[in-house]
Automatic annotation (TrEMBL):
E.C. designation(s): 3.2.1.143
Sequence intervals crossing the membrane: none
Protein name, per record: ADP-ribosylhydrolase ARH3
Alphabetized GO MF terms: metal ion binding; poly(ADP-ribose) glycohydrolase activity
Coiled coil, from the record: none
Keywords in alphabetical order: Hydrolase, Magnesium, Metal-binding
Catalytic activity: alpha-NAD(+) + H2O = ADP-D-ribose + nicotinamide + H(+)
């Protein structure tokens, strides 16, 4: 396609009519493969060819383009040359992970397209990188793609050479949701990861193509159902029992709930987000190592009371990329317990989330929401949380303005605050929160914390 356009456009009027005809030029492939060997292929366009196409040809056909294929080195020039008003399908070929992640996080044309236009996205990452890409980068990219692409229907997220032994995603550590995605192709680490994709996070998914790196037996049950009260009761019980904020004890009680149904309405754990499950499994491993290191009986490790040991225990059990909603839905006991000490309440609200969800957005989201229930200390917030604090949730049309109750903590904060801001009673706000769809019970549970504190117990509906 590229070579044809470069060679024949502007040769004569007849060629131009044929080559630039809207029926022919809707799909544009801006790559050109050169084979050095079977395993070494270059997809970049010659700079002279690229410059001429961007300067003389794209301005004449940009309004016709529906599908576009670009590679890493030419993407910025191709996308910045001109706007593509009818573009809905985008393929990103042979990208390095760090480069793509930078584009996804920055204020870029690519990010704007993903948010506003793209419904079909095909990403092929260059998997020949040495050293091997970090799993955290892949997880972060996957989360960002699902959170940014509000119109996404089809996603193909694969290694470029399709022979990678290190590219598969570990989905047990990822909290993400999409209420629009219907088709997904992805590489996963184990067969268990397939099951994580079948929970409520991708509730419109109808076509799933999975490449599994390994199939191994696991003694654990893959729990993909939802209940939003047990962890809040665990947290409240810890605060009352310990007469203070003790993260280790909170993790112990979360573990009891996870393994034995402690504080569950059914006697079993039926509410375990993927990020939370991963953090609690990591906590169990850390407990065993800590007990061995300090000569403690393993059967007594849940009942630590020695302050020095508690201070030395590494309580943060989650990777930086975990920013799901579970840290927020259990939060209310902390600001209520420390209502006489505003700054302490805000600080502990953040820590209570961070022990299972390590991303700074989760930390600051909990700090901010805890402050709304009572107070706020003027510490710097993550930019996305700061944007919410400045009123990004104040959208008159709510659902029609893109407001959704999704698993990403930023979306949940916006949805809950919109429901609270746009209504005048506890009942009306709860209904508005639920009617946003997606993860409705969690949206309502988080809304109830703030609205209950605002309206007071006596103004809650008797039923």
């Amino acid at each position: 396609m590229v070579n044809v356009l470069y060679s024949l456009v502007d040769v004569n009027q007849r060629f131009d009519q044929l080559l630039l005809d809207p029926l022919y030029i809707r799909n544009l492939d801006m790559t050109s493969m050169t084979m050095k060997s079977y395993h070494d292929r270059i997809y970049s366009i010659d700079n002279q060819v690229l410059s001429r196409i961007c300067k003389n040809i794209l301005p004449r056909i940009h309004h016709q383009i529906n599908e576009l294929i670009v590679e890493q080195h030419s993407m910025e020039l191709v996308l910045h040359t001109i706007h593509y008003p009818h573009l809905y399908s985008l393929s990103l070929i042979d990208f390095q992970e760090e480069v793509l992640l930078k584009y996804l996080r920055g204020d870029t044309i690519l990010r704007k397209l993903l948010i506003e236009q793209i419904t079909c996205l095909h990403i092929e990452i260059n998997d020949k990188t040495t050293p091997s890409p970090l799993p955290e980068i892949r997880s972060t990219m996957f989360i960002l793609i699902l959170s940014l692409c509000k119109r996404l229907i089809k996603l193909n997220f694969t290694p470029f050479y399709h022979r990678s032994t290190f590219y598969a995603l570990d989905l047990s550590s990822i909290d993400c949701m999409s209420s629009t995605l219907t088709e997904l192709e992805i590489y996963v680490k184990t067969f268990d990861d397939c099951l994580y994709l079948l929970d409520e996070r991708l509730n419109c998914l109808s076509t799933l193509k999975i490449h599994v790196e390994e199939i191994v037996y696991t003694p654990e049950t893959i729990d993909n159902t939802v209940n939003d009260g047990s962890m809040a009761l665990c947290l409240a019980n810890s605060l009352v029992a310990r007469h203070s904020f003790e993260p280790y004890d909170q993790l112990v009680r979360y573990k009891w709930w996870f393994r034995h149904g402690y504080m569950s309405s059914t006697g079993n754990c039926f509410d375990i987000g993927d990020g939370t499950r991963k953090a609690l499994c990591e906590f169990e491993k850390t407990q065993k190592a800590f007990a061995h290191e300090h000569g403690l009986p393993l059967e007594e490790i849940d009942f630590l009371s020695d302050k020095k040991l508690l201070d030395n225990f590494p309580i943060y059990c989650s990777p930086d990329g975990a920013a799901g909603n579970r840290s927020l839905m259990r939060l209310a006991p902390v600001p209520l317990f420390f209502y006489r000490k505003p700054e302490v309440a805000v600080e502990f609200s953040g820590i209570s989330g961070r022990i299972t969800h390590g991303d700074k957005k989760a930390l600051d989201g909990c700090r901010y929401y805890g402050a709304l229930i009572k107070w706020f200390k003027n510490d710097p917030l993550h930019p996305e949380i700061e944007n919410i604090a400045k009123g990004s949730f104040k959208k008159e049309k709510g659902y029609d303005d893109g407001m959704r109750g999704k698993g990403y903590i930023v979306y949940f904060l916006e949805a809950v605050l919109w429901a609270f801001w746009s209504t005048q009673s506890f009942e009306a706000g709860a209904l508005a929160a639920v009617n946003l769809g997606d993860d409705t019970d969690t949206t309502a549970a988080i809304y109830g914390q703030l609205a209950g504190a605002h309206y007071g117990f006596h103004k809650l509906p008797p039923e």
